[in-house]
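S., here's the first fold you wanted:
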Amino acid sequence: MDYQLIGSLVLGLIILVIGAEVFIRGAVGIAKAAKLTPLVIGLTVVAFGTSFPELVVSATGVLQGQTDIAFGNVVGSNIFNTLFILGISALICPLIVHSQLLRRDLPLMIGVSLLAWFFARDGGFSLVEGLCLVVLLVLSTWKAVRDARKEVALAEEASSEVPSTKAWPIWVSLLATCGGLALLILGSRLLVFGAVGFAKQFGLSELVIGLTIVAVGTSLPEVATSVIAAIRGQRDIAVGNVVGSNVFNILCVLGISATLPGKGIGAPPSALELDVPMMVLAAIICIPVFLSGRIGRRVGAFFLAAYILYTVTLILHAEAHPVAQRLRQAIFITLPSFTLFAFVLFLTRRRNGNKTESSHA
């Protein structure tokens, strides 16, 4: 037994939990000082900060020629963020979905997921495609901050009361955010080091390591941040963190990594058959769930079950197991069926609600 790897895993987890708590407190303080809503902070500062491990790992993978790890890290992280993090957070505390996520951020997440699939169809990302992703990142972030400032200004004009909220001084919030981010990156690096070490001992391929061990390891800041935000009742940050991180992973992590010198980012055929479609499908099933306005515990349990099924399918597919194809078919039947059922349920409840309001009127 390798005690160094075990120590790295345990220490990394402890540092991640501490870092997430400090980072959230600092981010909320910046939100208040900059007159931004907690949702926008979750979509920008928190999402970008917790996704930095993905950027570091993917960029390092490209520079070292481990392009399968770089690509698998992003795709695997987005699947993990949507299904596992939203699932576990909803089990802890049902999440409220802000209307802004439906109007702009969810369509953006789905759109960039489809764009990544389109770019990857020829087996990789070119320099021009990488630059396109980075430009989209800058434009989307600028628009999110601009719209948030307008919403806060309108809310202040409409209310004559001045909210009395306790907030850290701005310099303390900035220091806490930077310190928490540093702890998040350090903790994730320690976890990835230990996890990859164990994975290599079991003979897993680079793509599978990137889609599972590295993806989960680099997404642990998002896990810690969203779970702690859900526990503390800051549910806008919990949901916004996941959506923002997914957008950031595609636009920034893939975009910047594709522009670095080296072999670029390749998209293996096996990833295009299972993992990339799964990433897109995981984003699409959020449509009826977010339309309902909340993510309840039952939906959270379904998301977790879907992620477990995907992980089992991925491992069996890597080993060319005959059951893998059947599980793959089960995934691409079950998830669309759930999406359709949830959408019909939403429409039915909305229609019944309208009838009830009409009868009372």
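And the second, which I think is the more interesting of the pair:
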Amino acid sequence: MSKGVLVDLTKCVGCGSCTVACKLYNDNKYEKDKPAIGMNATLTDQNWTVVSAKQVKKEGEPVWRFVKQQCLHCEEPACASACFARAFQKTEEGPVIYYPHLCVGCRYCMLACPFDIPKYQWEKSFPLVTKCQMCSGKVAEGEAPACVSVCPTNVMTFGERDELLALARKTIESDSRYVKHIYGEKEAGGTSWIYISDVPFEQLGFRTDVPITPLPEYSEGFLKYTPYVIVGWGSLLTGLYLYTKRRNKIAQEEKKNINA
């Protein structure tokens, strides 16, 4: 059964414990100019999870809400569909894992992701793509991801995705504070991370224009030809190079004959 995490944004106090746990577990660096907590928090190649501070309006009054962001681990991930090298793969337990040794650096995954999650190590000599792995080793053993286990206010609940959806429905139906929408239940065909909130998701920076249909259904028909296009394009460029080289050589020989 696919695992997942239910995030109740009404409980988040913005402490950032989850971001610290993520960095410690994955050995990611702390970068002062790229904060993982606060109004300027942003996902980077070292920030796999962040807590963004959002000032929004609720019933006409300004309020603060804190939004934990990370890879949503789609049920049918567009990144995996776009990657002809199979560097991205969805596990049975739920996490979408990145295998760097298979990556060819094409960055199609970055273009395909509807949530703008994968990041590229632009500053490195041998860059890779990075993103949250949902602590796949822990999840495979039935344990919660590191960020979930350290939350002091129980913002996140780890478990079977179907059971979490049932819990989310029960919560929003029994409490009038909540928006009657479970983000991630259907977006992009459904995600392993799902959210409930008392503020409309568009006010919190969530993309609300993501289609319900799984994105691989749009892309698989033509992305399967990507390897052939690459090989064909490489052959064409090689042919042009050899042709140009031969042409220049002939021109130099003719010039020598004329001067002689």
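Why I say that: Strands lie at 3-8, 37-38, 50-58, 61-69, 88-90, 96-98, 119-120, 129-130, 156-160, 193-196. Residues 225-259 form one domain.

Talk tomorrow,
H.
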